[in-house]
Design goal:
2 strands; 2 domains; mainly alpha; two-stranded antiparallel sheet; 45% helix; extended
Length: 164
Amino acid sequence: MTALLPASSANIAASANFANNCTNYMNFTNSLNFHSASHSNIDENQWNWPELTIEKLEKVIFSSSIKKAADSDRIGFLIIQKTYSIIPELFFQLYYKLIKLDFHSTCWKKSINVVIKKINKDDYSDSKSYRIISLLNCLDKISEKIIAKRLLFFAKTTNLLYFD
């Protein structure tokens, strides 16, 4: 497999520890000579993210389908939505503080991956004959939606998105 990769990326796979992986990865990406756009209109020290409001949080929670499967904690969106209806302030405090502290819970990062056969395939020894479904933590999905909306806002207000 490493024969298909550039010589620098082969070093990443062959590294014995995390520090070597990081060094090899940085050397590899630096060798690619990406041409980055100038974003002189971005002053990181003065950037103000839009505040999370209880209305925005509610919109994120209730825009999620109750039919989506939960991970091993079995806390699906129906449970979250019903609980939010009773104690919205606690949800708001949780997500507000997670964002302010730049914290992403380790237990939310876990997933369950399920391999499913695709129907009507001739050769099931081919990996393309299967689909992987990842069951993610629903509380984490809420957090990811909030961050995704903030990143989209940032990209739009700083002209990071180019439409050709």
